[in-house]
Amino acid sequence: MEVLKNHTAAALLENAAAFIRSSYSELGKDPAEAERRINEITSSLVKTGTYCHTAEELAFGAKAAWRNSSRCIGRLFWDSLVVRDARQLETASEVAEAIFEHMRTATNGGKVKPTITIFRQAMEGREIRIWNHQFIRYAGYETEDGVLGDPASLELTREALRLGWEGAGTPFDVLPLIIQIDGQEPEWFPLPEELVLEVPLTHPDNPAFAGLGLRWYGVPFIADMALEIGGLRYTAAPFNGWYMETEIGARNLADQSRYNKLPEVADVFGLDRSSPATLWKDRALVELNVAVLHSFKRHGVSIVDHHTAAQQFVRFEEREAAEGREVNGRWTWLIPPLSPAATPIWDRPYQEREVSPNYVYQDRPYGPGSGEGSEGAGDRTSAGASRKIEGADPVGTSHSDDEGRPPKQGCPFHF
């Protein structure tokens, strides 16, 4: 075997070899084939300082990264992920067209397909970045009366306006797609209207609810996380699952730092808001989530409720145990934000570890917070669900670990 004198290349080889051995074993390949592949990678590292994944390695790595995502409740479906290899694309317009096709095929008329599109790996001085937290996100405008739209989008809205985009000035203006290639000035692209599936919200038992004029987009396409496989980092690897209803009804529309709609919902139902002790917030929260589930199902758009998602996660745990794999999990993210004590994962212990492959947060490339971690991921989307807060995330507040630092690992499918 050729000798690697560069420390970085040696570390990359160590990560690559670990991935190749584990993935080839799961794929049923002969150990000798894995060692031959490691020798190929070693030669590539000696000559170029890096290596490239085969299409099979890339697909397995993306699926395994979902399986390893400690904060994702929807991992039962990890092996169903559709992997689109777009590593040959170079220009912003090419990337945008690939994203539009991703949206078209994954939305699938409302029958959402968990999908990831992977663009070329990052190398020194070269990386593709998608500035949006999600492909579809509503703008946020600062006004004399407060924020109009989504407060989690204020910074990205400012950047979009700086680049020349103009919004209609409504609470639900869809932001453009912003793509940056190799550190150059970013380019923006309007999302084709036919690709933006939106769901107007109504309530099955209260016709007046429709008067609130609430809506949400049908598919959470997470765009700002990086995919790490075998030491290689894909800085543009957008993916989607489907929503868990609490991501919309208990976070995006309910959080005081987001749309803050609980008072209006309470008034529509005639709830007494004179004191917190009336539990009007709890009752309004339930009704808002009832409306989200009802509306998505009425319009034929995939969604899962938090009780079903928790039951599915227990099945995932059982399957992993049968395969001899330990589940990587963070309890504070896995429990839903509504009635968590009523789900089967409430009293289960979980341990979060740094494992690879995985989806990880990366520095935001724009605004005052650039270089300080993700804008927040606020929602928890689902491929079956998503991240706990939606906004830079999936919300107006960004996720951080217990020490206040941006977390390294995140949930791609559940924000």
Automatic annotation (TrEMBL):
Q: Which co-factors does it depend on?
A: heme
Q: Which residues form a coiled coil?
A: none
InterPro entries, sorted: Nitric_oxide_synthase_Oase-su (IPR017142), NOS (IPR050607), NOS_dom_1 (IPR044943), NOS_dom_2 (IPR044940), NOS_dom_3 (IPR044944), NOS_N (IPR004030), NOS_N_sf (IPR036119)
Q: Which CDD domains match?
A: NOS_oxygenase (cd00575)
Identify the stretch(es) annotated as Disordered: 360-415
Question: What's the domain of life for this entry?
Answer: Bacteria
Q: Name one Pfam family in it.
A: NO_synthase
Which intervals hold domain Nitric oxide synthase (NOS)?
71-78
What reaction gets catalysed by this protein? 3 reduced [flavodoxin] + 2 L-arginine + 4 O2 = 3 oxidized [flavodoxin] + 2 L-citrulline + 2 nitric oxide + 4 H2O + 5 H(+)
Top-tier EC class: oxidoreductase
The record's SUPFAM superfamilies line, in alphabetical order, gives: Nitric oxide (NO) synthase oxygenase domain
Which keywords does the record carry? Heme, Iron, Metal-binding, Oxidoreductase
What EC number(s) is this enzyme filed under?
A: 1.14.14.47
Q: What else is known?
A: This protein is similar to the oxygenase domain of eukaryotic nitric oxide synthases but lacks the reductase domain which, in eukaryotes, is responsible for transfer of electrons to the ferric heme during nitric oxide synthesis.
User: What role is this protein assigned?
Assistant: Catalyzes the production of nitric oxide.
How does this polypeptide assemble, per the annotation? Homodimer.
Family assignment from sequence similarity? Belongs to the NOS family. Bacterial NOS oxygenase subfamily.
According to UniProt, the name of this protein is: Nitric oxide synthase oxygenase
Q: Its gene?
A: nos
